[in-house]
Description:
Elements: H1 2-19, E1 58-63, E2 69-73, E3 77-87, E4 93-101, E5 119-120, E6 124-130, E7 134-146, E8 155-164, E9 195-196, E10 207-213, E11 217-224, E12 227-235, E13 241-246, E14 251-254, E15 256-261, E16 264-266, E17 269-271, E18 275-278, E19 288-291, E20 353-362, E21 365-366, E22 371-376, E23 382-386, E24 392-394, E25 398-399, E26 404-411, E27 417-420, E28 424-428, E29 432-436, E30 439-443
Parallel strand pairs: 2-8, 20-29, 20-30
Antiparallel strand pairs: 1-3, 3-6, 4-5, 4-7, 7-8, 9-10, 10-13, 11-12, 11-15, 14-19, 15-18, 16-17, 20-21, 20-24, 20-25, 22-23, 22-26, 26-28, 27-30
Amino acid sequence: MRKLFAFTLLFSLALLAFSRQGEVVPGAATPQAPQQYFIYLPVMGNTLAEPKVTQIISGSVWLNGGICCVGGTVGSTATIVAVFEATSPFTTVTGLRLITHSSNPQGQCVAEANLGEWQPYHSSQVFTTTIASGWTSFAVHVQFRDALGNPSPVVCDEIAVEGMPASETPTATLTPTTPTATATICPLPTQVWLAVEPVTSPTDLLTQTIIVRMDNGVAATITTESGTFNYWGEFGFGLPAPITITLLPNHEHHLEVSARVKRVEYAGCVYGDYTVGTTHDRHGQPLTIVQGAVTPSATPTPTATPCLACASATPSPTPTPTSTACLECASATPSPTPTPTCACLPTHTPGPGLALKGDVRWQGTGLAGVSIYRSYAAYAGVIVATTDATGHYQSEFAYIPGDEMVTVWAELPGSPYAFDPAVVYWRHYFGTEIKTIDFTVSLATPVPTRTPCQLGCPSVTPTPEATLTPTPSALPSTLR
């Protein structure tokens, strides 16, 4: 009984002392708030675990609003404004590091190891470069990271820089209106190219759709004898403006095409906001449409041959095919030789850009159906031409406003062929370039030997190996 009483007394004293904890005793120091302790129990799959990165940080860089070129006199300074944009799915973007180059190495962004030191993130930065003679380029490569340290891929942009002799640029236009004011230096833009697709003439139809191509277009007008026809809305070189016009019966129509360039204001500079016009198509031919039975007006006959040496070229005689081991039996009739066609490039200068032509040959014979790919810089390739029955190919003329890194290669899907050269890579400089690239074909993997007569031919004595007699190209050699 005594033990129970003692235990009850001690428990009551302890409870009283605990309940008075934190009271202020006169003359004593103010007590501190009791410490609080929390125990965190790990739970599998809870949201406190370190987040797993499932999406990369995205970013971009634009030079001078995405225009193709800047320019000025040789030795002067060009101002280039880079605009940075980056987002993170986790937190805010806090840093970037960059490097500049006179041109993109091999047309691609540099590796992370070549970038500079990390610096606080900012949305834009102004660069200057000394303008050299002719065409050069200026590139900015940048990488971003967020507050958690997640990096973005390296992104880059390049702008062409044109240097012109000092005598070609009037110095009076750069004189400030006020001697003490600081003049805004605006990069000199390159005038856009207005390209109209060839028209159909003569024609029996009373309407025709004219295709007008121009970068940054906002309106286009066609004026002819039958009236004025307008197109309102933005269009570009790759997404042209289709304008349908009406034609007068039994009449000759002379088309005048004009287009308005969109006004762009950037960093205190104004670009565009002007009109260009033409009366010729993109090949330099007059935009004239003859409708119905009308005698066209006298037009000087061009003296240049439409195709380079095609008209006067005489195809070489085709050797008679020899019988080969059962794949071509003795009674087989040789395949007819393809009719020579004239598919030459125009003799006029269409403007700055590039066209490709050449031949693909397997053991001296042209290989048909081969796709020719072309890509710019680090962009994906597109098919620009396919070889014909003679192995010859020729691409459409592609407009290029400045310098460009170009890659060309050949492919024949599903075949055991390898092409030499595998890839052709070079820098295209501003101007007109017609480049010839020939490919030779070899077997990439061994092909099983075919047993003579396994296709069930008549009893013909097979030769040990098939001999392929090359068929000469239908196009003259001066074109290749």
